[in-house]
Amino acid sequence: MLAFDWPTLIAAALIVTLAYSVYGLTGFGAVIVGVPLLAHFFPLRFAVPMMLIFDLGAGLLLGLRSYRLAHRAELIRLIPYLLIGMVAGGFFLAHVPEPWLLMVLGIFVLSYSVWSLLVKAGAQLASPRWAISAGLVGGAFTAMYGTGGPIYVIYLARRLKEAQVLRATIGVLIFGTALFRLVMFAGSGFYAQDHLLSLGFALLPCVLIGYLLGSYLHTRIPVPRVVQAVWLTLILGGASLIWRSLTMW
User: Fold this and answer.
1) What's the pLDDT at 223?
2) What is the pTM (predicted TM-score) of this model?
3) Would residue 218 count as lying in a domain?
4) Is 1 within a domain?
């Protein structure tokens, strides 16, 4: 049975508020900020399903207002591979030892953060064949950590040049995969863990507070500077996860 002291609960509330403040500021990044930080206080098999509650809550609160603009052809191209990747990722989350999961998450967060800081988005269109790897890898990371969104963004940003269509397509993907993960996690017994649901629902107000705070700051703080600060923070977070995984052996 997991028991949480007040410092842990306060840390969790601050992390969730920070994660959705970033989402309110930038329109993305809640999970890739939240999961690595929560993993320092909770087992991954606890933190990932709990973060899914926040994702679904945010989706229901904020709605998929522009879902009609989603690019159906790209969704149809991605979804079969994405589902295969999610099934594989769910199996890994359930059966792979925690140190290995932390190591892979740390490497992913560290690599993606460095890439985001150093690489500028290109104009060259990606081949539709990249949907296979984007779907498989993105689906696996979505099921294991909830962090597959950046992989979809990398692919779709080189396929869809209209910002509204890109945002709507990513929004549909993320909300749809969240529903699929909910079914997978419930079937695997993750939500039967002591205190997971109660803590998740107790922290839902932090999602709304963080989003409102981020939205308020959106017009008052230069977003590129905020994004850079987030990636620098995640570089440290990713490196610390790798170190932590090594100390668990």
Assistant:
1) 66
2) 0.87
3) yes
4) no
Terminal-to-terminal C-alpha distance of the chain: 22
User: Look-up: residue for tokens 């028991």?
Assistant: 3
Q: What is the CB neighbour count within 10 angstroms for residue 3? A: 7
Paired tokens of 179: 């529903």
Three-state DSSP class for 42? coil
Domain that holds residue 53: 6-247
- Kindly report the number of other CB atoms within 10 A of residue 111's CB atom: 12
pLDDT (0 to 100) of residue 2:
56
Number of domains in the chain: 1
Sign of dihedral through CA atoms 119, 120, 124, 129? Answer: positive
Pick from 26-30, 46-50, 91-95, 118-122: least confident: 118-122
Is residue 224 situated within a structural domain?
yes
Range name among 167-171, 182-186, 239-243 with the lowest pLDDT average: 167-171
Place 1 in a pLDDT band, splitting at 50, 70 and 90. Answer: very low
Cα separation of 126 and 149, whole Å? 17
